[in-house]
Batch of 4 targets.
Target 1
Amino acid sequence: MSEPAPLPTACEAALSAALRPALFKALCDPVRVSIVARLATRQDPVAVSDLVACCGIDFSGVSRHLKLLRQAGVVSATREGRSVRYSLNSDALCQVLRASADALEQCSEQAG
Protein backbone atom coordinates (compact mmCIF):
# COMPACT_ATOMS: atom_id res chain seq x y z
CA MET A 1 0.00 0.00 0.00
CA SER A 2 1.40 3.40 -0.91
CA GLU A 3 1.88 6.24 1.56
CA PRO A 4 -0.56 9.14 1.30
CA ALA A 5 0.84 12.27 -0.27
CA PRO A 6 2.14 14.75 2.32
CA LEU A 7 -0.05 17.74 3.04
CA PRO A 8 1.03 20.93 1.37
CA THR A 9 2.88 23.09 3.88
CA ALA A 10 0.51 26.04 3.49
CA CYS A 11 -2.53 23.81 4.08
CA GLU A 12 -1.06 22.22 7.17
CA ALA A 13 -0.04 25.60 8.56
CA ALA A 14 -3.48 27.09 7.93
CA LEU A 15 -5.27 24.20 9.60
CA SER A 16 -2.89 24.16 12.57
CA ALA A 17 -3.41 27.88 13.12
CA ALA A 18 -7.21 27.77 12.79
CA LEU A 19 -8.33 24.56 14.43
CA ARG A 20 -8.80 24.62 18.19
CA PRO A 21 -9.05 21.02 19.46
CA ALA A 22 -10.30 22.06 22.92
CA LEU A 23 -13.14 24.01 21.36
CA PHE A 24 -14.26 21.15 19.14
CA LYS A 25 -13.94 18.71 22.04
CA ALA A 26 -16.13 21.01 24.14
CA LEU A 27 -18.76 21.18 21.38
CA CYS A 28 -18.93 17.45 20.66
CA ASP A 29 -21.27 16.62 23.56
CA PRO A 30 -25.06 16.89 23.07
CA VAL A 31 -25.61 18.43 26.51
CA ARG A 32 -23.02 21.12 25.85
CA VAL A 33 -24.59 21.80 22.45
CA SER A 34 -27.94 22.27 24.25
CA ILE A 35 -26.30 24.71 26.67
CA VAL A 36 -24.71 26.65 23.81
CA ALA A 37 -28.05 26.76 21.98
CA ARG A 38 -29.83 28.04 25.08
CA LEU A 39 -27.20 30.71 25.69
CA ALA A 40 -27.30 31.74 22.03
CA THR A 41 -30.96 32.66 22.39
CA ARG A 42 -30.43 34.85 25.45
CA GLN A 43 -29.30 38.48 25.56
CA ASP A 44 -28.42 38.51 29.26
CA PRO A 45 -26.13 36.17 31.19
CA VAL A 46 -27.90 33.07 32.51
CA ALA A 47 -27.62 31.42 35.93
CA VAL A 48 -26.76 27.73 36.14
CA SER A 49 -30.15 27.03 37.71
CA ASP A 50 -31.84 28.44 34.58
CA LEU A 51 -29.87 26.03 32.38
CA VAL A 52 -30.78 22.88 34.32
CA ALA A 53 -34.22 22.72 32.69
CA CYS A 54 -32.80 22.64 29.15
CA CYS A 55 -30.50 19.71 29.69
CA GLY A 56 -32.26 17.06 31.74
CA ILE A 57 -29.35 16.74 34.17
CA ASP A 58 -28.74 18.05 37.68
CA PHE A 59 -27.13 21.31 38.76
CA SER A 60 -23.67 19.81 39.32
CA GLY A 61 -23.71 18.17 35.87
CA VAL A 62 -24.58 21.46 34.17
CA SER A 63 -21.81 23.15 36.18
CA ARG A 64 -19.25 20.59 34.97
CA HIS A 65 -20.31 21.12 31.35
CA LEU A 66 -20.13 24.89 31.77
CA LYS A 67 -16.62 24.57 33.21
CA LEU A 68 -15.47 22.71 30.06
CA LEU A 69 -17.13 25.28 27.83
CA ARG A 70 -15.50 28.11 29.78
CA GLN A 71 -12.06 26.49 29.57
CA ALA A 72 -12.49 26.19 25.79
CA GLY A 73 -13.47 29.86 25.53
CA VAL A 74 -17.00 29.14 24.38
CA VAL A 75 -18.69 30.82 27.35
CA SER A 76 -17.71 33.42 29.89
CA ALA A 77 -18.70 33.56 33.55
CA THR A 78 -19.45 36.52 35.77
CA ARG A 79 -20.15 36.38 39.47
CA GLU A 80 -23.24 38.22 40.67
CA GLY A 81 -23.51 37.92 44.41
CA ARG A 82 -23.59 34.24 45.30
CA SER A 83 -24.42 33.04 41.81
CA VAL A 84 -22.41 32.75 38.62
CA ARG A 85 -24.02 33.74 35.34
CA TYR A 86 -22.88 32.53 31.94
CA SER A 87 -23.01 34.02 28.49
CA LEU A 88 -21.97 32.76 25.08
CA ASN A 89 -18.79 34.20 23.57
CA SER A 90 -20.52 34.21 20.20
CA ASP A 91 -18.13 36.61 18.49
CA ALA A 92 -15.08 34.55 19.48
CA LEU A 93 -16.83 31.28 18.62
CA CYS A 94 -17.88 32.56 15.18
CA GLN A 95 -14.36 33.84 14.54
CA VAL A 96 -12.78 30.44 15.27
CA LEU A 97 -15.35 28.58 13.18
CA ARG A 98 -14.92 30.99 10.25
CA ALA A 99 -11.13 30.67 10.45
CA SER A 100 -11.47 26.88 10.39
CA ALA A 101 -13.76 27.04 7.34
CA ASP A 102 -11.37 29.46 5.60
CA ALA A 103 -8.43 27.12 6.27
CA LEU A 104 -10.33 24.16 4.81
CA GLU A 105 -11.26 26.20 1.74
CA GLN A 106 -7.61 27.17 1.31
CA CYS A 107 -6.63 23.51 1.37
CA SER A 108 -9.34 22.63 -1.16
CA GLU A 109 -8.13 25.35 -3.51
CA GLN A 110 -4.60 23.99 -3.30
CA ALA A 111 -5.84 20.50 -4.19
CA GLY A 112 -7.77 21.74 -7.22
Target 2
Amino acid sequence: MATTADIGRGMIIKLDGSLYSVVEFGENKTARAAAKVWARLKGVDNNRTIEKTWNSGDTIFPVRVEKKTYQFLYKDDTGYNFMNTETFEQITLQEEMVDAPQFLKEGQEVAVLINTETDQPMSVELPDKIVVKVTYSEPGLRGDTATRTLKPARVETGATVNVPLFVNEGELIRINTKTGEYVERVK
Protein backbone atom coordinates (compact mmCIF):
# COMPACT_ATOMS: atom_id res chain seq x y z
CA MET A 1 0.00 0.00 0.00
CA ALA A 2 1.09 3.53 -0.73
CA THR A 3 0.21 6.76 1.00
CA THR A 4 -0.16 10.34 -0.18
CA ALA A 5 3.54 10.87 0.65
CA ASP A 6 4.39 8.63 -2.33
CA ILE A 7 2.50 10.71 -4.93
CA GLY A 8 4.64 11.84 -7.85
CA ARG A 9 4.12 13.43 -11.24
CA GLY A 10 3.33 10.81 -13.88
CA MET A 11 2.20 8.21 -11.32
CA ILE A 12 -0.94 6.30 -12.31
CA ILE A 13 -3.45 5.66 -9.54
CA LYS A 14 -6.78 3.85 -9.33
CA LEU A 15 -9.60 6.08 -8.07
CA ASP A 16 -13.31 5.16 -8.08
CA GLY A 17 -12.71 2.30 -10.53
CA SER A 18 -10.91 4.46 -13.11
CA LEU A 19 -7.23 5.06 -13.80
CA TYR A 20 -5.76 8.56 -13.54
CA SER A 21 -2.31 9.99 -14.20
CA VAL A 22 -0.98 12.62 -11.77
CA VAL A 23 -0.36 15.83 -13.72
CA GLU A 24 0.39 18.12 -10.78
CA PHE A 25 0.32 17.78 -7.00
CA GLY A 26 1.00 19.76 -3.85
CA GLU A 27 0.36 20.07 -0.14
CA ASN A 28 -1.68 22.62 1.81
CA LYS A 29 -0.70 23.20 5.42
CA THR A 30 -2.63 25.31 7.89
CA ALA A 31 -1.80 26.18 11.47
CA ARG A 32 -4.77 24.45 13.10
CA ALA A 33 -5.85 21.71 10.71
CA ALA A 34 -4.02 18.65 9.42
CA ALA A 35 -2.13 18.92 6.13
CA LYS A 36 -4.01 18.14 2.94
CA VAL A 37 -2.53 16.71 -0.27
CA TRP A 38 -4.10 17.72 -3.58
CA ALA A 39 -3.53 16.45 -7.09
CA ARG A 40 -4.71 17.34 -10.59
CA LEU A 41 -5.48 14.05 -12.32
CA LYS A 42 -5.91 13.25 -16.02
CA GLY A 43 -7.97 10.20 -16.95
CA VAL A 44 -6.03 7.38 -18.59
CA ASP A 45 -9.04 5.25 -19.51
CA ASN A 46 -11.43 8.21 -19.86
CA ASN A 47 -11.22 11.83 -21.06
CA ARG A 48 -11.83 13.46 -17.68
CA THR A 49 -9.55 15.81 -15.78
CA ILE A 50 -10.29 16.13 -12.07
CA GLU A 51 -8.80 17.50 -8.86
CA LYS A 52 -8.72 15.34 -5.76
CA THR A 53 -7.82 16.20 -2.16
CA TRP A 54 -6.76 13.71 0.53
CA ASN A 55 -5.78 14.06 4.17
CA SER A 56 -2.04 13.70 4.59
CA GLY A 57 -1.19 10.01 5.09
CA ASP A 58 -4.32 8.61 3.39
CA THR A 59 -3.93 5.42 1.40
CA ILE A 60 -3.80 5.62 -2.41
CA PHE A 61 -3.80 2.77 -4.90
CA PRO A 62 -1.03 3.10 -7.50
CA VAL A 63 -1.13 0.93 -10.61
CA ARG A 64 2.10 -0.60 -11.81
CA VAL A 65 2.74 0.39 -15.39
CA GLU A 66 5.40 -0.78 -17.83
CA LYS A 67 6.64 1.32 -20.74
CA LYS A 68 7.40 -0.74 -23.82
CA THR A 69 8.87 0.52 -27.07
CA TYR A 70 6.60 0.11 -30.08
CA GLN A 71 6.91 1.29 -33.66
CA PHE A 72 4.01 3.04 -35.39
CA LEU A 73 3.14 1.14 -38.56
CA TYR A 74 0.02 2.68 -40.12
CA LYS A 75 -3.49 4.00 -39.49
CA ASP A 76 -6.57 2.36 -40.98
CA ASP A 77 -10.32 2.04 -40.27
CA THR A 78 -9.70 -0.09 -37.15
CA GLY A 79 -7.31 2.42 -35.54
CA TYR A 80 -3.59 2.99 -35.12
CA ASN A 81 -1.38 -0.07 -35.59
CA PHE A 82 1.82 -0.51 -33.58
CA MET A 83 4.48 -3.25 -33.47
CA ASN A 84 6.52 -4.27 -30.42
CA THR A 85 10.18 -3.78 -31.38
CA GLU A 86 11.31 -6.83 -29.36
CA THR A 87 8.61 -9.47 -29.94
CA PHE A 88 7.20 -8.11 -33.24
CA GLU A 89 3.68 -8.50 -31.79
CA GLN A 90 1.20 -6.05 -33.34
CA ILE A 91 -1.58 -4.15 -31.54
CA THR A 92 -4.29 -1.79 -32.74
CA LEU A 93 -5.30 1.16 -30.55
CA GLN A 94 -7.99 3.82 -30.87
CA GLU A 95 -7.16 7.49 -31.49
CA GLU A 96 -8.14 8.62 -27.96
CA MET A 97 -5.37 6.39 -26.51
CA VAL A 98 -2.65 8.29 -28.43
CA ASP A 99 -1.54 11.52 -26.73
CA ALA A 100 -0.74 13.47 -29.95
CA PRO A 101 -1.94 11.45 -32.97
CA GLN A 102 -1.47 14.40 -35.36
CA PHE A 103 2.34 14.08 -34.98
CA LEU A 104 2.62 10.32 -35.62
CA LYS A 105 4.61 9.32 -38.69
CA GLU A 106 5.21 5.83 -40.04
CA GLY A 107 8.22 4.08 -38.54
CA GLN A 108 8.34 6.36 -35.48
CA GLU A 109 9.12 4.77 -32.12
CA VAL A 110 6.70 5.48 -29.26
CA ALA A 111 6.25 4.32 -25.66
CA VAL A 112 3.12 2.25 -24.98
CA LEU A 113 2.02 2.16 -21.33
CA ILE A 114 0.90 -1.35 -20.35
CA ASN A 115 -1.16 -2.02 -17.19
CA THR A 116 0.68 -4.95 -15.55
CA GLU A 117 -2.46 -6.15 -13.74
CA THR A 118 -4.45 -6.73 -16.93
CA ASP A 119 -1.68 -6.70 -19.59
CA GLN A 120 -3.78 -4.21 -21.55
CA PRO A 121 -2.32 -1.13 -23.28
CA MET A 122 -3.48 2.08 -21.59
CA SER A 123 -2.01 4.89 -23.69
CA VAL A 124 0.67 5.83 -26.20
CA GLU A 125 3.27 8.51 -25.49
CA LEU A 126 5.25 10.17 -28.25
CA PRO A 127 8.77 11.45 -27.57
CA ASP A 128 8.74 14.96 -26.07
CA LYS A 129 10.33 16.47 -29.17
CA ILE A 130 10.31 15.15 -32.73
CA VAL A 131 11.86 16.28 -36.02
CA VAL A 132 9.48 16.73 -38.97
CA LYS A 133 9.74 18.19 -42.46
CA VAL A 134 7.74 21.27 -43.46
CA THR A 135 5.67 20.34 -46.53
CA TYR A 136 3.89 23.66 -47.05
CA SER A 137 4.52 27.18 -45.80
CA GLU A 138 3.81 30.65 -47.15
CA PRO A 139 7.00 32.62 -47.79
CA GLY A 140 7.79 35.20 -45.10
CA LEU A 141 7.88 38.91 -45.91
CA ARG A 142 11.37 40.38 -46.02
CA GLY A 143 12.06 42.79 -43.18
CA ASP A 144 9.10 41.64 -41.06
CA THR A 145 11.30 40.21 -38.32
CA ALA A 146 11.19 42.95 -35.68
CA THR A 147 8.60 41.05 -33.65
CA ARG A 148 8.22 37.34 -33.04
CA THR A 149 5.71 36.89 -35.85
CA LEU A 150 4.51 33.36 -36.56
CA LYS A 151 2.96 31.82 -39.65
CA PRO A 152 1.15 28.49 -40.10
CA ALA A 153 3.09 25.64 -41.70
CA ARG A 154 1.93 22.13 -42.60
CA VAL A 155 4.33 19.32 -41.65
CA GLU A 156 4.74 15.84 -43.14
CA THR A 157 2.30 14.27 -40.65
CA GLY A 158 -0.51 16.57 -41.82
CA ALA A 159 -0.55 18.73 -38.68
CA THR A 160 -0.34 22.52 -38.79
CA VAL A 161 2.26 24.22 -36.58
CA ASN A 162 2.94 27.94 -36.11
CA VAL A 163 6.56 28.66 -37.08
CA PRO A 164 8.72 31.82 -37.33
CA LEU A 165 8.81 33.66 -40.68
CA PHE A 166 12.33 32.41 -41.59
CA VAL A 167 11.20 28.74 -41.76
CA ASN A 168 10.61 27.69 -45.37
CA GLU A 169 9.09 24.75 -47.16
CA GLY A 170 11.31 21.64 -47.22
CA GLU A 171 13.20 22.45 -44.00
CA LEU A 172 13.38 20.19 -40.96
CA ILE A 173 12.03 21.57 -37.68
CA ARG A 174 11.84 20.24 -34.13
CA ILE A 175 8.44 20.49 -32.43
CA ASN A 176 7.23 19.79 -28.90
CA THR A 177 4.59 17.03 -29.08
CA LYS A 178 3.07 17.96 -25.68
CA THR A 179 2.27 21.57 -26.64
CA GLY A 180 2.36 21.36 -30.44
CA GLU A 181 4.76 24.32 -30.60
CA TYR A 182 7.81 24.98 -32.76
CA VAL A 183 11.12 24.57 -30.88
CA GLU A 184 13.92 25.09 -33.40
CA ARG A 185 15.11 24.60 -36.95
CA VAL A 186 17.24 21.48 -37.53
CA LYS A 187 20.27 21.57 -39.80
Target 3
Amino acid sequence: MDRKKELKQQYKETKIQAGVYQIKNTKNNKVFIESTNNLKTINGRQFMLKMGGHPNKALQEELNSFGEDAFVIEVLETLKEKPEGYYSVKDELKKLEEKWMDQLQPYGERGYHRKK
Protein backbone atom coordinates (compact mmCIF):
# COMPACT_ATOMS: atom_id res chain seq x y z
CA MET A 1 0.00 0.00 0.00
CA ASP A 2 2.88 2.38 0.74
CA ARG A 3 4.24 1.80 -2.77
CA LYS A 4 0.94 2.98 -4.24
CA LYS A 5 1.06 6.20 -2.20
CA GLU A 6 4.68 6.70 -3.19
CA LEU A 7 3.85 6.34 -6.89
CA LYS A 8 0.93 8.77 -6.58
CA GLN A 9 3.16 11.34 -4.92
CA GLN A 10 5.84 10.85 -7.55
CA TYR A 11 3.23 11.38 -10.29
CA LYS A 12 2.02 14.60 -8.65
CA GLU A 13 5.58 15.91 -8.39
CA THR A 14 6.47 15.08 -11.98
CA LYS A 15 6.86 18.29 -13.92
CA ILE A 16 4.58 18.68 -16.92
CA GLN A 17 6.44 19.68 -20.07
CA ALA A 18 4.83 21.59 -22.91
CA GLY A 19 6.23 21.42 -26.42
CA VAL A 20 5.88 20.79 -30.12
CA TYR A 21 5.96 17.38 -31.77
CA GLN A 22 5.57 15.91 -35.22
CA ILE A 23 3.93 12.81 -36.57
CA LYS A 24 6.04 11.80 -39.57
CA ASN A 25 5.19 9.41 -42.38
CA THR A 26 8.46 7.59 -43.05
CA LYS A 27 7.26 6.43 -46.49
CA ASN A 28 6.72 9.87 -48.03
CA ASN A 29 8.24 12.17 -45.36
CA LYS A 30 5.02 14.15 -44.87
CA VAL A 31 4.62 15.60 -41.37
CA PHE A 32 1.88 16.77 -39.06
CA ILE A 33 2.97 19.31 -36.45
CA GLU A 34 1.14 20.03 -33.23
CA SER A 35 1.79 21.62 -29.87
CA THR A 36 0.60 20.43 -26.49
CA ASN A 37 0.60 21.68 -22.92
CA ASN A 38 1.61 18.20 -21.80
CA LEU A 39 3.93 16.08 -23.95
CA LYS A 40 2.72 12.99 -22.11
CA THR A 41 -0.54 13.30 -24.07
CA ILE A 42 1.25 12.21 -27.25
CA ASN A 43 0.30 8.63 -26.39
CA GLY A 44 -3.35 9.70 -26.55
CA ARG A 45 -2.86 11.08 -30.06
CA GLN A 46 -1.18 7.85 -31.09
CA PHE A 47 -4.11 5.88 -29.69
CA MET A 48 -6.55 8.17 -31.51
CA LEU A 49 -4.76 7.43 -34.79
CA LYS A 50 -4.84 3.68 -34.13
CA MET A 51 -8.58 3.84 -33.45
CA GLY A 52 -9.23 5.86 -36.62
CA GLY A 53 -10.42 9.02 -34.92
CA HIS A 54 -7.76 11.64 -35.58
CA PRO A 55 -9.27 15.02 -36.56
CA ASN A 56 -6.83 15.48 -39.46
CA LYS A 57 -8.50 13.32 -42.12
CA ALA A 58 -5.55 13.31 -44.56
CA LEU A 59 -3.22 12.03 -41.85
CA GLN A 60 -5.75 9.43 -40.73
CA GLU A 61 -6.31 8.20 -44.31
CA GLU A 62 -2.58 7.75 -44.92
CA LEU A 63 -2.13 5.96 -41.61
CA ASN A 64 -4.93 3.61 -42.61
CA SER A 65 -3.34 2.91 -46.00
CA PHE A 66 0.38 2.82 -45.02
CA GLY A 67 -0.10 1.24 -41.59
CA GLU A 68 0.97 2.56 -38.20
CA ASP A 69 4.52 1.18 -38.59
CA ALA A 70 5.10 3.79 -41.30
CA PHE A 71 4.69 6.63 -38.78
CA VAL A 72 6.92 7.96 -36.01
CA ILE A 73 6.19 10.57 -33.38
CA GLU A 74 9.06 12.85 -32.43
CA VAL A 75 9.28 15.74 -29.98
CA LEU A 76 10.72 18.70 -31.88
CA GLU A 77 11.21 21.08 -28.98
CA THR A 78 10.15 21.47 -25.37
CA LEU A 79 9.01 24.82 -24.06
CA LYS A 80 11.52 26.46 -21.75
CA GLU A 81 9.87 28.35 -18.92
CA LYS A 82 11.00 31.88 -18.20
CA PRO A 83 12.06 32.25 -14.57
CA GLU A 84 10.74 35.79 -14.12
CA GLY A 85 8.10 38.20 -15.40
CA TYR A 86 4.78 37.46 -17.07
CA TYR A 87 4.76 34.16 -18.87
CA SER A 88 1.83 32.72 -20.81
CA VAL A 89 2.38 29.06 -21.67
CA LYS A 90 -0.38 29.27 -24.27
CA ASP A 91 1.20 32.26 -26.07
CA GLU A 92 4.72 30.87 -25.92
CA LEU A 93 3.55 27.49 -27.16
CA LYS A 94 1.77 29.12 -30.10
CA LYS A 95 4.98 30.99 -31.03
CA LEU A 96 6.98 27.76 -30.79
CA GLU A 97 4.52 25.90 -33.01
CA GLU A 98 4.58 28.74 -35.57
CA LYS A 99 8.38 28.60 -35.59
CA TRP A 100 8.30 24.91 -36.51
CA MET A 101 5.53 25.41 -39.07
CA ASP A 102 7.64 28.10 -40.75
CA GLN A 103 10.76 25.94 -40.61
CA LEU A 104 9.27 22.66 -41.87
CA GLN A 105 6.50 24.03 -44.13
CA PRO A 106 4.20 20.98 -43.68
CA TYR A 107 1.82 21.92 -46.51
CA GLY A 108 0.81 20.15 -49.71
CA GLU A 109 3.29 17.43 -50.65
CA ARG A 110 5.34 18.10 -47.49
CA GLY A 111 2.68 17.66 -44.87
CA TYR A 112 -0.86 17.31 -43.64
CA HIS A 113 -1.64 20.98 -42.97
CA ARG A 114 -3.44 23.53 -45.14
CA LYS A 115 -2.13 27.06 -45.55
CA LYS A 116 -4.27 29.63 -43.80
Target 4
Amino acid sequence: MQRDRFSGSALRILAFALLFSGVMSQSLFAQEGTVITWKTLTDVKFSEKYVQKYQDWFLFPTFGPSVRALEGKPVAIKGYVIPIDLEEGIYALSAFPFAACFFCGAAGPESVMTLMISKPKRKYNTDDVVTFKGVLRLNDTDIEQFNYILENAEEVKFHY
Protein backbone atom coordinates (compact mmCIF):
# COMPACT_ATOMS: atom_id res chain seq x y z
CA MET A 1 0.00 0.00 0.00
CA GLN A 2 2.79 2.39 0.92
CA ARG A 3 4.46 1.59 -2.42
CA ASP A 4 1.31 2.57 -4.38
CA ARG A 5 1.04 5.91 -2.56
CA PHE A 6 4.70 6.61 -3.27
CA SER A 7 4.20 5.79 -6.96
CA GLY A 8 1.20 8.13 -7.11
CA SER A 9 3.13 10.90 -5.36
CA ALA A 10 6.12 10.40 -7.63
CA LEU A 11 3.88 10.57 -10.68
CA ARG A 12 2.20 13.75 -9.44
CA ILE A 13 5.61 15.34 -8.79
CA LEU A 14 6.86 14.30 -12.22
CA ALA A 15 3.68 15.62 -13.91
CA PHE A 16 4.00 18.92 -12.03
CA ALA A 17 7.68 19.22 -12.98
CA LEU A 18 6.91 18.61 -16.65
CA LEU A 19 4.02 21.06 -16.61
CA PHE A 20 6.11 23.68 -14.78
CA SER A 21 9.03 23.32 -17.19
CA GLY A 22 6.69 23.87 -20.17
CA VAL A 23 5.10 26.89 -18.50
CA MET A 24 8.55 28.26 -17.66
CA SER A 25 9.69 27.86 -21.28
CA GLN A 26 6.66 29.80 -22.47
CA SER A 27 6.94 32.47 -19.80
CA LEU A 28 10.66 32.92 -20.45
CA PHE A 29 9.86 33.52 -24.12
CA ALA A 30 6.92 35.72 -23.19
CA GLN A 31 9.38 38.08 -21.52
CA GLU A 32 11.13 38.49 -24.87
CA GLY A 33 8.21 38.17 -27.30
CA THR A 34 4.64 37.20 -27.98
CA VAL A 35 3.27 33.74 -28.69
CA ILE A 36 0.78 34.18 -31.54
CA THR A 37 -1.60 31.90 -33.41
CA TRP A 38 -2.72 31.91 -37.01
CA LYS A 39 -6.02 33.38 -35.84
CA THR A 40 -4.08 36.47 -34.72
CA LEU A 41 -2.90 36.96 -38.30
CA THR A 42 -6.44 37.01 -39.72
CA ASP A 43 -6.79 40.69 -38.78
CA VAL A 44 -6.16 41.64 -42.40
CA LYS A 45 -8.26 42.54 -45.42
CA PHE A 46 -7.27 42.08 -49.05
CA SER A 47 -7.97 44.08 -52.16
CA GLU A 48 -7.11 43.18 -55.72
CA LYS A 49 -4.75 45.39 -57.66
CA TYR A 50 -3.51 45.02 -61.19
CA VAL A 51 0.27 44.72 -61.53
CA GLN A 52 1.41 45.83 -64.96
CA LYS A 53 4.78 44.04 -64.71
CA TYR A 54 3.00 40.66 -64.50
CA GLN A 55 -0.14 41.71 -66.37
CA ASP A 56 -2.27 40.11 -63.69
CA TRP A 57 -4.33 40.85 -60.58
CA PHE A 58 -2.84 40.26 -57.12
CA LEU A 59 -4.17 40.46 -53.57
CA PHE A 60 -2.64 43.25 -51.49
CA PRO A 61 -3.12 43.30 -47.70
CA THR A 62 -4.32 46.04 -45.39
CA PHE A 63 -3.26 44.93 -41.94
CA GLY A 64 -5.57 45.50 -38.99
CA PRO A 65 -4.42 47.18 -35.77
CA SER A 66 -3.68 43.96 -33.84
CA VAL A 67 -1.38 42.73 -36.62
CA ARG A 68 0.26 46.14 -37.15
CA ALA A 69 1.09 46.17 -33.42
CA LEU A 70 3.26 43.06 -33.99
CA GLU A 71 5.37 44.61 -36.78
CA GLY A 72 9.07 44.31 -35.91
CA LYS A 73 8.35 42.47 -32.66
CA PRO A 74 9.64 39.07 -31.58
CA VAL A 75 6.94 36.41 -31.87
CA ALA A 76 6.61 32.63 -31.76
CA ILE A 77 4.19 30.65 -33.92
CA LYS A 78 3.55 26.97 -34.60
CA GLY A 79 2.74 25.67 -38.04
CA TYR A 80 3.42 23.21 -40.83
CA VAL A 81 6.75 23.55 -42.61
CA ILE A 82 6.64 23.73 -46.39
CA PRO A 83 10.04 23.51 -48.13
CA ILE A 84 10.26 26.00 -50.99
CA ASP A 85 13.87 25.55 -52.13
CA LEU A 86 15.86 22.91 -50.24
CA GLU A 87 19.18 23.81 -51.85
CA GLU A 88 18.82 27.43 -50.72
CA GLY A 89 17.23 26.50 -47.38
CA ILE A 90 14.07 28.49 -48.11
CA TYR A 91 10.98 27.44 -46.18
CA ALA A 92 7.45 28.64 -45.55
CA LEU A 93 5.36 28.07 -42.46
CA SER A 94 1.66 27.38 -42.95
CA ALA A 95 -1.40 27.22 -40.75
CA PHE A 96 -2.41 24.11 -42.70
CA PRO A 97 -0.72 20.99 -44.05
CA PHE A 98 0.49 21.14 -47.64
CA ALA A 99 -2.60 19.37 -49.02
CA ALA A 100 -4.83 22.17 -47.66
CA CYS A 101 -2.50 25.17 -47.77
CA PHE A 102 -2.41 28.46 -49.63
CA PHE A 103 -0.45 26.96 -52.56
CA CYS A 104 -3.33 24.56 -53.30
CA GLY A 105 -5.92 27.32 -53.23
CA ALA A 106 -7.50 25.92 -50.07
CA ALA A 107 -6.51 28.82 -47.80
CA GLY A 108 -5.86 32.55 -47.92
CA PRO A 109 -2.54 34.43 -48.04
CA GLU A 110 -2.82 35.20 -44.31
CA SER A 111 -2.25 31.50 -43.58
CA VAL A 112 1.38 31.31 -44.72
CA MET A 113 4.64 33.12 -43.97
CA THR A 114 8.21 33.14 -45.20
CA LEU A 115 10.73 31.69 -42.75
CA MET A 116 14.09 33.43 -42.87
CA ILE A 117 15.93 30.86 -40.76
CA SER A 118 19.06 32.37 -39.26
CA LYS A 119 20.94 29.12 -38.55
CA PRO A 120 19.08 26.01 -39.69
CA LYS A 121 19.56 23.27 -37.10
CA ARG A 122 18.26 20.59 -39.42
CA LYS A 123 16.58 19.91 -42.75
CA TYR A 124 12.81 20.27 -42.47
CA ASN A 125 10.37 18.02 -44.28
CA THR A 126 6.96 18.88 -45.72
CA ASP A 127 4.33 19.08 -42.98
CA ASP A 128 6.77 18.93 -40.04
CA VAL A 129 4.89 20.69 -37.22
CA VAL A 130 7.36 23.13 -35.67
CA THR A 131 7.26 26.23 -33.49
CA PHE A 132 9.53 29.05 -34.65
CA LYS A 133 10.41 32.33 -33.02
CA GLY A 134 11.70 35.38 -34.83
CA VAL A 135 10.91 38.98 -35.73
CA LEU A 136 7.63 39.47 -37.58
CA ARG A 137 7.74 41.70 -40.65
CA LEU A 138 4.64 42.76 -42.55
CA ASN A 139 4.79 42.97 -46.33
CA ASP A 140 2.14 44.89 -48.22
CA THR A 141 4.13 45.84 -51.33
CA ASP A 142 6.41 43.04 -52.61
CA ILE A 143 4.28 40.48 -54.47
CA GLU A 144 7.27 38.14 -54.71
CA GLN A 145 7.18 37.62 -50.92
CA PHE A 146 4.47 36.44 -48.58
CA ASN A 147 2.57 39.02 -46.57
CA TYR A 148 4.15 37.75 -43.34
CA ILE A 149 7.89 37.22 -42.98
CA LEU A 150 9.54 35.75 -39.89
CA GLU A 151 13.10 37.10 -39.84
CA ASN A 152 15.91 35.48 -37.83
CA ALA A 153 13.62 32.49 -37.40
CA GLU A 154 14.78 29.68 -35.19
CA GLU A 155 13.09 26.56 -33.96
CA VAL A 156 11.96 26.54 -30.35
CA LYS A 157 11.08 23.48 -28.35
CA PHE A 158 8.03 24.54 -26.37
CA HIS A 159 4.65 23.81 -27.88
CA TYR A 160 1.30 25.36 -27.12
